[in-house]
UniProtKB/TrEMBL annotation:
Its EC number is 4.4.1.2. It is an enzyme of class 4 (lyase). GO terms for cellular component: cytoplasm. The keyword Hydrolase does not apply. Keywords: Pyridoxal phosphate. InterPro entries: Cys/Met-Metab_PyrdxlP-dep_enz (IPR000277), Cys_met_metab_PP (IPR054542), PyrdxlP-dep_Trfase (IPR015424), PyrdxlP-dep_Trfase_major (IPR015421), PyrdxlP-dep_Trfase_small (IPR015422). It catalyses: L-homocysteine + H2O = 2-oxobutanoate + hydrogen sulfide + NH4(+) + H(+); L-methionine + H2O = methanethiol + 2-oxobutanoate + NH4(+). This is homocysteine desulfhydrase.
Length: 395
């Protein structure tokens, strides 16, 4: 099966009951047995079945299966949110005295885990400059339990070489986790590049409609099972209603991503020519520092881009409300275009100083391209540029 077939058919078979063509929302918290021995066998894992909603559920199961098939993984486990997936993975795999190596501009919530929470448990965290592969390799060589990657990064769209760093990590016996939220399984498959685990905020592109929260991790059975055991106790399962919305959204994953890839390329090229735009960050642009790596490691350049305006935050504040076809909102990866400045979106959790340390300019606009017509989006941007032209003082 190719990606588009997987996103439509993948993982559903077992959960289609009574001839239903769509996976039903099973809202029952518990599952009953006529036979105590069978019940016991299911608890012991000797037989397939469902026990209690904090463990798993037929709707949730179908969602996990669909992502598993798309990532070509042995196993998958889902969570209430993307952050639950990330924190459960890290708290499962790390113990006091262990060390994590990662990069400075991971997602804001992940960065918060690294700087505030893991250190409280005696876990050492080393964050390198995101694109400095030599520095990363040097830190990995010193020994670490986990190498945590995110590529492309949010919001400056920097790329990290998954294959190269996975190789370095495996030489010291580290487990590699890659956040694949931005790329989706359509544009990038980290497991095939050497990452041990892949994590998604399903809230974004997988669901694609901004109406359900969720997270998921895929990888080999032994690691995924460990994380599942921890999640079961930690208590952050995916809700069956959300699982249903995510499954429904994922059926169109391939065609949405293809369209978003195309739209983002057109818009990035347009922005590049705008006199009021200081910088455009999009790996699809041939002069982008990550372009060559993107061609090597990705199947598409993605639907996310960011750009900075001459005139800084002041200009951004005038510009954004003029856009007609863009929600000013913190979400990304939906069918509608969403925009926002960084301090209210991906890095709302961080202070100004923390954002500065991550190399994120305050005049940066995160633009998550939807599936609208690209010419309409460009016209919309054009009129907003025209509006601010005379209003802002260019520094
Ligand atoms: C949004 C996001 C997360 C967190 O996901 P939630 O579902 O909001 O908890 C993690 N990583 C990346 C790259 C994200 O964009």
């Amino acid at each position: 099966m190719k990606h588009s077939t997987k996103s439509v058919w993948g993982g559903e078979e077992k959960s289609l009951i009574a001839g239903a063509t769509q996976v039903p929302i099973v809202s029952s918290v518990v599952f009953a047995y006529d036979d105590v021995d069978k019940w016991s066998d299911v608890i012991l894992g000797k037989e397939d079945g469902y026990i209690y909603g904090r463990m798993t559920n037929p709707t949730v199961d179908a969602f996990e299966e669909k992502v598993r098939v798309l990532e070509d993984a042995e196993a998958a486990v889902s969570f209430a949110t993307g952050m639950a997936a990330i924190s459960n993975a890290l708290f499962t795999l790390l113990s006091p005295g262990d060390r994590v190596v990662s990069v400075k501009d991971t997602y804001g919530g992940t960065n918060k885990l690294f700087i505030d929470h893991l250190p409280r448990f005696g876990i050492e965290v080393t964050l390198c400059d995101t694109t400095d592969h030599e520095a990363l390799e040097k830190e990995i060589k010193k020994g670490c339990k986990v190498l945590y990657l995110e590529t492309p990064t949010n919001p400056t769209m920097k790329l990290i070489d998954i294959a190269r760093l996975s190789k370095a990590a495996h030489q010291v016996g580290a487990i590699v986790i890659t956040d694949n939220t931005m790329a989706t399984p359509i544009n990038q498959n980290p497991l095939q590049l050497g990452s041990d685990l892949v994590v998604h905020s399903a809230t974004k592109y997988l669901g694609g409609h901004g109406d359900a929260l969720g997270g998921v991790i895929c990888g080999p059975k032994n690691l995924v099972n460990q994380i599942y055991e921890y999640r079961m106790i930690n208590g952050a399962p995916l809700d069956p209603n959300a699982a249903y919305s995510l499954i429904r959204g994922m059926k169109t994953l391939q065609i949405r991503i293809e369209r978003q890839n195309e739209n983002a390329m057109e818009i990035a090229s347009f922005l590049k020519k705008q006199p009021l735009v200081e910088d455009v960050f999009y790996p699809g642009l041939t002069d982008d520092p990550s372009h060559e790596l993107a061609k090597k490691q990705m199947n598409g350049f993605g639907g996310m881009l960011s750009f900075s305006l001459k005139g800084g935050l002041e200009a951004v504040n005038e510009f954004l409300p003029r856009l007609r076809f863009a929600h000013l909102a913190a979400n990304l990866g939906a069918v509608e275009t969403t925009v926002g400045p960084v301090h209210t979106t991906s890095h709302a959790e961080c202070t100004l100083e923390e954002r500065k340390a991550m190399g994120i300019p305050e005049g940066l606009v995160r633009y998550s391209v939807g599936i609208e017509n690209a010419s309409d989006l460009i016209e919309d941007l054009e009129q907003a540029f025209k509006y601010i032209e005379n209003k802002i003082t260019v520094k």
